[in-house]
Specification:
Layout lengths: L6 E8 L1 E5 L4 E3 L4 E2 L3 E5 L6 E9 L6 E4 L2 E3 L4 H12 L4 E3 L4 E3 L8 E8 L10 H15 L6 H8 L14 E5 L10 E6 L8 E6 L9 H11 L1 H23 L3 H20 L10 H17 L4 E5 L5 E5 L2 H14 L11 E6 L1
Parallel strand pairs: 7-11
Antiparallel strand pairs: 1-6, 2-5, 3-4, 5-12, 6-11, 7-8, 9-10, 12-13, 14-16, 14-17, 15-16
Helix pairs in contact: 1-2, 2-3, 5-6
The chain binds ligand 2P0.
């Protein structure tokens, strides 16, 4: 191997929104959840991460830049992902450029990683899901790793739990698994992005402020103190997951909306049941819920489902284009934007 070459690969991965929520770990290091979860992956044109990974004998150490700013790779989550992917690296040959990397060389070679989010990182929208999924996928391409997406998802999971669901498009299930080593805690695609093309996802950014309680520490506190979380994980989610899978397979929006809203509300109830209680939603979030509930009831059948993650922003899933157009009109009427810089009612539209 000469010293002058650089080999690069780029990948793009969208973020995902859970409709059956992941909240609580049974193993914090391996990131093993207490229940299954189901998500929808967004269109890469909107919320996604693009990551370029490069390898060269000239690189002195592993380094990473996020949105142009260097960040530390010393954290356990990055180290676990890099270690697991390096273990699976295979021979790579670029005959045209006379480059050959043998399997054993990967242990010694260093990586440079540049990652960009195409959405405002400060907007409180989950970025770790797309970020770790993209990192693992890009490295797998660079290192000629032969594992399939599900197997790669088990590596991305060790970066951030929700990341494992971003390796696929469409609707995705993260199976919690039973093994202590996490080998069966991975994501599978339920249906691809073409299965339910009518759906429109609108994200209403209620606040761009950084959340006070991170997901990681919030779910740790819930596991330690919430008896509702135990009930949810054992009794509620197993049944709800089956019903949600059926609703998705049948494109049954009424059931889908009922289950997604109920699951979001229960996740936030678990947060309230935590000691000290965690408040992710705010008054505007509550007003959006009341408004959507009222609209759905007045139509006789749900037009829009809502779901809220570890923050106040509303993810609104409209049954079709017409409902999405009405939703945007109504949101702008009830929540008029105050100024360009005020992100109240700043809308990000996404078609799945
Ligand atoms: C989810 N959330 O299923 C749930 C719903 C937030 C609420 O996954 O500690 O950033 O990195 O595994 O994945 C956020 O948690 O937490 C999350 P870690 P992650 O999307």
């Amino acid at each position: 191997m000469g010293e002058k070459w650089v080999l690069m690969k780029t990948a793009q991965t969208p973020t995902n929104i859970a409709v059956i929520k992941y909240w609580g770990k049974r193993d914090e290091t391996l990131i093993l959840p207490v229940n299954d979860s189901i998500s929808v992956t967004l269109d890469p044109a909107h919320l996604c991460t693009t990551t370029t990974v490069a390898v060269s004998p000239a690189f002195q150490q592993d380094r990473m830049w996020l949105n142009g700013k260097e960040i530390s790779l010393s954290g356990g989550r990055y180290q676990n992902c890099l270690r697991e992917i390096r273990k699976r690296a295979r021979e790579v040959e670029d005959k045209e450029r006379g480059i050959k990397i043998e399997k054993k060389d990967w242990e010694k070679l260093h990586l440079h990683i540049a990652s960009y989010n195409n959405f405002p990182t400060a907007a409180g929208l989950a970025s770790s899901a797309a970020g770790f999924a993209c990192l693992v996928f890009a490295l797998a391409k660079l290192m000629n790793v032969s594992e399939d997406e599900s197997q790669l998802s088990a590596i991305a999971r060790q970066g951030s739990g929700s990341a494992c669901r971003s390796l696929f498009g469409g609707f995705v299930k993260w199976i919690m698994g039973k093994e202590d080593d996490g080998s069966d805690s991975l994501a599978v695609q339920l249906v691809d992005e073409k299965h339910w093309e009518d759906l429109f996802i609108i994200i209403a950014v209620v606040s761009s402020r950084q959340k006070e309680t991170s997901s990681t520490s919030g779910m740790r506190e819930s596991v330690e103190t919430s008896s509702l979380l135990q009930h949810r994980a054992k009794e509620v989610v197993p049944k709800r997951t089956i019903q949600m899978e059926e609703a998705i397979q049948n494109r049954d929006f009424a059931s889908f909306a009922k289950l997604a809203c109920a699951d979001s509300n229960q996740f936030h109830a678990v947060c309230l049941d935590t000691l000290p209680p965690i408040f992710y939603m705010n008054d505007t979030s509550h007003r959006i819920i009341s408004y959507v509930e009222k609209w759905n009831r007045s139509e006789g059948t749900p037009q829009v489902a809502y779901t809220f993650d570890a923050g106040p922003n509303a993810v609104l899933i409209a049954r079709d284009r017409k409902a999405a157009a009405q939703l945007i009109q109504r949101l702008l009427f009830y929540f008029p934007p105050k100024s360009d810089t005020d992100l109240d009612s700043y809308l990000l539209g996404d078609k799945t």
